[in-house]
Amino acid sequence: MPRSEARVATDRPHRYAKQLASHLSRRSETSWDEDSGEGGIVFQNGTGTLTAAEGALLLAVETDAEHLAVLEDVVGRHLVRFGTKDELVVEWRRDTGEPGTTQRNTE
Question: Could you give the 3-state DSSP secondary structure of residue 73?
């Protein structure tokens, strides 16, 4: 299954991951473990992972090729909206080595 990953620089990776998992739980099955700093998302057409690392939030999505850009956008767009103050930028990289989509605040 095609995969795409993003490393989002932030001083608050735990906060953003928890907020993203909570927000997406309205339409998808999500999990977040504060102790391990890891979470997951089960979308209708794929899955996602959230990992809080030192100075960054690591994101990954897996789905069929047709929906990869859609899941990148869903996860990235919501995260960027939460992180407006911190000017978060999400740049996805596909497992093929090609660049994926990019989300940033345009306001």
Answer: helix
| Structural domains counted in the chain | 1
Q: What is the pLDDT of residue 26?
A: 92
CA distances in angstroms from 100 to 7, 70, 95, listed in the order given:
12, 10, 10
Residues pairing with 32 in the sheet: 39
Token representation of residue 94: 């596909």
Helices (H), 1-107: 13-24, 68-82
- Locate the DSSP E strands across the chain: 3-9, 29-33, 38-43, 46-53, 56-63, 89-94, 99-104
Helices 68-82 and 13-24 cross at an angle (nearest 10°) of: 120
pLDDT tens-place string over residues 52-80: 999 999 999 999 999 999 999 999 999 99
Domain boundaries, position 90: 3-104
CATH number at residue 36: 3.30.310.50
Give the chain's residues under pLDDT 50.
none
